[in-house]
Amino acid sequence: MAQWSVTNRLVTIRVACQAFGISETCYRYCAKLSSENTVIADWLVCLTSNQRNWGFGLCFLYLRNVKGFKWNHKRVYRIYRALELNLRIKPCQRIVRDVPLALAVPTKINDMWSMDFMHDQLADGRSIRLFNVIDDFNREGLCIEVDFSLPSKRVIRALNQVIEWRGKPRAIRCDNGPEYISAVTSAWATKRGISIEFIQPGNLQQNAYVERYNRTVRYDWLAHHLFDSIDEVQNFATSWLWTYNHDRPHMGLGGITPKQKTGTGRLTSTFSAS
After folding, report:
1. What are the Polar residues biased-composition ranges (predicted)?
2. Cα 224–226–227 angle (5° rounding)?
């Protein structure tokens, strides 16, 4: 209204501002569209296209902690909402359960690993299994082994391959599956000096780190693609594992990646000591 009054030469700017209760600074202010907004929008579209289950939190943490941009979270969120990239919020389903034993929290690398199996199908309907191993301290994915069948000997072989480059863990947490409770696995752990810690039957919360990791595997890539062969799944899993460890911010680590939590020197010293 002040601008209309001045434009039609009815009053001066000073009188118009006094009449409508605004400052002359406010009257003269012109919004400037920053070219960085386009850059932010391009990054957000690219991230949500490649990682369709990433919400605003992961996108912002990736831009801030991994790529090093200093954009304010309110500015990024405003553009995120303007592009209508927000995910649908799923309602929580609360289930009453008996209180399990407290989840053990590791304090250093190779203090506690967790392992678990996942199941899926190829495009032709054949069932496959995925064997996942993570370090509970920094949630780093150590291996994803894929095959139609993964008996105890394959589990041991996969663990030996990880131990060769990372060093052995103090203990490995797992459920009560037949591959873990077998005499072969028990003898291997005893020979290696590794403690196998089984969770209480039916209390998957005690294996929460790897169960949460399994969900990430499922929703980040496994449920998004149809694979024709075991080799195709294995190659994709190996490529994704590098991205997960180096580029994907982890909410449980304060928005940094597993490798940022680790630190190169700390990993080297731990490996040498093992």
Report:
1. 259-274
2. 125
Within 10 Å of residue 99's Cβ, how many Cβ atoms?
Answer: 7
107 in any annotated domain: no
Long-range CB contacts (within 8 A, 24+) of 65-71: 65/249, 65/255, 65/256, 65/257, 65/260, 66/247, 66/249, 66/257, 67/43, 69/43, 71/36, 71/40
Alpha carbons within 13 A on the beta-carbon side of 248: 24
Q: Are residues 234 and 126 in the same domain?
A: yes
Whole-angstrom distance, CA of residue 142 vs CA of residue 121: 23
Residues 129 and 219 in one domain: yes
Say if CB 183 and CB 125 are below 8 A apart: no
Question: Do the domain assignments include residue 48?
Answer: yes
Q: What is the pLDDT of residues 176-224, one digit of tens each?
A: 999 999 999 999 999 999 999 999 887 888 899 999 999 999 999 999 9
3-state secondary structure of 273: helix
- What lies within 8 Å, CB to CB, of 137 at 6+ separation is 106, 107, 108, 109, 110, 111, 112, 261
Whether residue 67 is found in the same domain as residue 176: no
User: Can you give the residue range of the structural domain that contains 238?
Assistant: 112-258
User: Residue 233: helix, strand or coil by DSSP?
Assistant: helix
Alpha helices (H) in 88-202, listed in sequence order: 152-166, 178-181, 183-192
The residue ranges of the chain whose pLDDT is under 50 are: 264-274
* CA dist., res. 245 & res. 184, Å (int): 31
What is the pairing mode between strands 140-147 and 127-135? antiparallel
Rg (CA), the chain: 26
Q: Could you tell me if 139 and 252 lie in one domain?
A: yes
Task: For residue 274, tell me if it sits in a domain.
Answer: no
Which CATH number do you get for residue 179? 3.30.420.10
Dihedral angle computed from the Cα positions of residues 54, 55, 60 and 61, in that order, rounded to the nearest 10 degrees: -60
